[in-house]
Each structure stands twice: as structure tokens, then as C-alpha cells.
Amino acid sequence: MPENPLSDPISQPVSGTMNYNLALLRNTLRAGVNADVVTRRFECGDFPAAAVYVDGMANAEYISQHILRPLMESAPCADESASSRAACAAAERLSSCGVKPCQALDDVMESVLSGDTALFFEGCAEALVVDTKGFPKRGVEQPVNETTVIGAQEAFVESLKTNLSLLRRGVRTPRFVAEPLQVGTGAPRGVALVYLDGVCNEQILSEARRRITHLDMDYIAGIEVLEQLLEDSPHSLFPQFAHTERPDRAVSFLLEGMALILIDGSPQALGVPASLLHLIHAPDVTFLRYPAGTFLRLVSVMGVLLTAFLPGVYLSLLSYHNEVLPLALMTSIYETQSRVPIPVFFELLLMGFAFDLINTAGARIPGAFGQALGVVSALIIGQAAVTADLVSPMLIIVVAVSGLGQLMITDYNLSLSFRMLQLLFSLSAALGGLYGMSLALLFFFGELCSLSSMGVPFFYPFAPTRMHNPDLLTRYPVWQQRVRQYIANPGRMMRAQGRARAWEKEKNDDDE
Q: What is residue 226's predicted lDDT score, i.e. its pLDDT?
């Protein structure tokens, strides 16, 4: 049994005998069973040649017009040797831009499976691989998860080439580098490590390359699976990389000195190394004026805090510390709670689980029907539970507010992390009240301070304190954001060398 069931290497160089090459390639690709593996034999001048491609992955019309027609209509060359036929065809006969020679049949097979066309020439121990990718792909559309009121309305797609073009259009600089890599030992997939040369720290890039190139998995399904193989602490509740489906947000990561990891077939990018603030920040705040941006950012932070702590605080006050509540409020809560036969903790678990069911069902059902289902289910279940005296009205409010706070978190993985954190704080509140929550909070901050992302502290610039862009919990004016994060190359920390609003100085000089 082979070490990798998905791998079936040929492990031979391209031979000068064309039929031998075709037999090996067709046998490995199971051409006798796979009807989409096409072998087209033709005469190129006065010698035989053949083209191999996968129908549906390659553009058949492009192959006919720009490969087969020029080669079949070319005149024989009297002084052309058999060993130079591939080089002569690439230089004088093919009109395609993407042409590269291959000497190994494994490289040829990998290119054919990617949608390229392989050309073999009788007597030539070298094949030509022509870029003819033409498989169906989704066009650029609006973001689904990171929607914004203002700003760009483009999202990544499943094509790696299209995603790289979106990034290049966003940051037009010769320092833009998209380093090609591969993951998957059996069925490899293309990966791009994207960064700004000279801006991104070389230590971070070296660590990212080391981790990507030292993965021993036969197949990696997508960016989410790749993230789990690369993260520093796989057992932590918190994701350590920043997901984004927006090219403009990915460009902002590059300008901060971060690197991006993209994989062919996934409409998202990973920003590394990331901090907790990268996961909390909403993308549209960047395009708002700083008073409105600060207001929305504080609302988001408040939503995060309510998600994590509100149910636990409510449970603590009701079970252990009711003396801090006003008498009228305490009387109202206990009056409604006295009719509920279920303990408060299990009541909280029941309604939290019901909210999770509604939220998940609404996400699984497509379109407006899913949204309507979520709203109607919440109203019906909440009203029915209160009428049947299964839960108190105050607890419905607590669960609803904490659920809305969870929806304020744009990163889906982080929102699930805070939902699980909410359960942990509720359990600690049920066991020890506010004292139990304080102890759990201590462990929570200890966990945050111990995490790292690609070797960089996850809780920077707070712990440890480092030089940073002032755009943290509040939205600073754009002209005051003059530095990058400390993770960037120390020689290129400054984003503005002089006054960002240089026209003000010119205006003052003119007035004087």
C-alpha cells in the first residue's frame, strides 16, 4: 500500500519517444475511464505532435485557435533538430503568453490537472505546458459576511488568480509580492503568500514559509483547514488568524506589515500575524469619519462585553448578590421568577440553546425565508415560554441583548468563541457568583496573554506594550495614524514622513 493513497507519481523524465510519454500520462490519468482526458494528435510541420488536456478544465476554443492552428499550419524547418522542437515551437509558432518547458512528467501531469495543456513533440525530450485554464468560476460579487454601508463592495472569489488581481488593484506598488507555494502531498493546491517587500518583517515571512512547506497532509480542503494546521495553539477557544473576504480589508493588513495567505478554491484570506483587535474591528469603520467611527467601535466593544458577561452577571446578582439591586427591580424580578419552576441557571441554558438553534437554522436556510424564520421563531418561542411560565421576561431580555452583542462581532469564528466563553462565565457565576466570574476573568486574560499568532503575542499592543497605530479601541483621525504596527519592518514603521495634511501648512504660509 502506498504511503499516500491520493498520490500516484510517474517519477520519470519526459522521453524523446512521444508515444511512450502519452502512454504513461494517459495511464496515470485513467484516460480509458475518464472521458474528459483528451489526447489530440496532429502533424506539426513534418513530424508528429500531441496535445493533452482535461476537457472542462481547459478552454477548448483557446486551444484550437492559439495552439493547434498555429502548430498545424507552420511550415517545416529544414535546419530544426528534433531536440529543439519544443523550444522552436515556443519561440516562433505559439501565440500564447503562458508557455513554459517541462522536463518531468509529474510536473506535466500536475499542470494538466490544473487546466493547462501539455504539448509533446516526437524526438524531443521536453514538453511544453501552455496556460489554457478555462474552468467555470464565480464572478466578483458583494461580500456576504462582512457587509458595509459605505466602502468597496467587492469580495474574494474561489479563483486564486482573480483574488491576486483584486489585491494588486488595491495596492499598486512594485513591492507587492505574491509568493507561490503548494500544500497537499497527494492532491496539491496552490497557495499564495502575499506581502509588501520591505514592509513585512522577514522573520514573520520565514515562519509562515516554514509552516506552510512543512505540512504533511494528502489534501487540504480550504483556508479554514489550512488555518487549523498553521495556528500556534490549536486547543484554544480563540482563532489566531484574521479572516476576511474583502480585498480592501486585506490591503489594510498588508499596509500594517502583515502577510496574507490565500489558497486556490477559497474566497477568503488569512491575515497573519493577527491580534484580538484585528478580529474585533469592523471593516466599515475605516471609511467613517473618526467621531462616527469611534462611536460605532465603542458600540462593538460594548456588544462583545455584553455577549461574554451579561448572562453571568445577571445570574450572579439574582443568586448571590441581590442586595446590590434596587428594591423595586428586585421585587419585580423575583415576582416573575417565583412562577418559574426551573432554576435560573438551567433557564439561562435553555434559552441560550434556543437562541443558538434559531440563529443556526436562520443561517442554514437561504434567502429572506431564513431571516423571516429567525424573527418569527424568536417571537413565538419567547412569547410562548413566558406565557407557559418556563422562563421569566427579564431573562428573555438578557438572552436577546447578549445575542445581539454576539451578532456585532464580524468574525464568525470569534463570535462562536465568545458564545462558548459566555457559557463558561455563566457556569462560574452559578458556582461562585461575581467572585467566581472574577476568577474566570483572571484565567481568561491569562489565556489571551499566553496566545500567539505566528509567534507574535496575540494581545499586543496591550500585553506586551509595543509601538502601535493609535487606531485601537477608539477611531483616531486618519492624519494621526502615522505609524504601522510593531510587527512591521522596523525600518519602515512610518506611514507618513511629514504632515499628512500638508495643504494646511501651505495655506498658513500663503496667509502670512
A: 94
**Which is nearest to 319 in space by CA: 436, 444, 438?**
436
Closest by CA to 348, choosing from 404, 441, 423, is 423
The answer to whether 117 and 144 are in contact (CB under 8 A) is no
CA pair distance 280, 287, nearest whole angstrom: 16
Residue 430's CB: how many other CB atoms inside 10 A? 21
**Which distant-in-sequence residues (6+ apart) come within 8 Å of 434 by Cβ?**
313, 316, 320, 321
DSSP H helices, 388-411, are 393-407
Q: Which of 441, 474, 148, 481 is nearest to 301 (CA)?
A: 474
Give me the mean pLDDT over the 49-70 stretch: 91
pLDDT digits (tens, 9 = 90+) for 323-345: 888 888 888 888 887 888 888 88
Strands (E), 333-455: 452-453
Long-range own/partner contacts, residues 355-361 (CB < 8 A, 24 or more apart): 355/399, 355/400, 355/403, 356/419, 359/403
Per-residue burial over 307-341, b if 16 or more Cβ lie within 10 Å, else e, is: bbbbbbbbbbbbebeeeeeeeeeeeebeebbeebe
Which amino acid is located at 288 in the chain? L
Residue 360: HSE in the Cβ half-sphere, 13 Å Cα cutoff: 8
Q: Which helix (H) or strand (E) holds 314?
A: helix 290-319
Provide the whole-model pTM.
0.86
Helical (H) or strand (E) element with 96: none
CA distances in angstroms from 309 to 13, 232, 303, 407, 450, listed in the order given: 63, 27, 10, 15, 21
Amino acid at 368: A
Task: Check if the beta carbon of residue 320 is closer than 8 Å to that of residue 431.
Answer: no
Whole-angstrom distance, CA of residue 384 vs CA of residue 369: 22
**ω into residue 273 within 30 of 0, thus cis?**
yes
497 half-sphere exposure, CB direction, 13 A CA radius: 2
Dist. CA 21–CA 2, nearest whole Å: 23
**CA distance linking residue 109 with residue 436, whole number of Å:** 61
The burial of 3, by beta-carbon neighbours within 10 Å (0-12 exposed, 13-18 middle, 19 or more buried), is given as: exposed
- DSSP-derived 3-state class of residue 424: helix
In 3D space, the residue among 495, 487, 491, 471 whose CA is nearest the CA of residue 285 turns out to be: 471
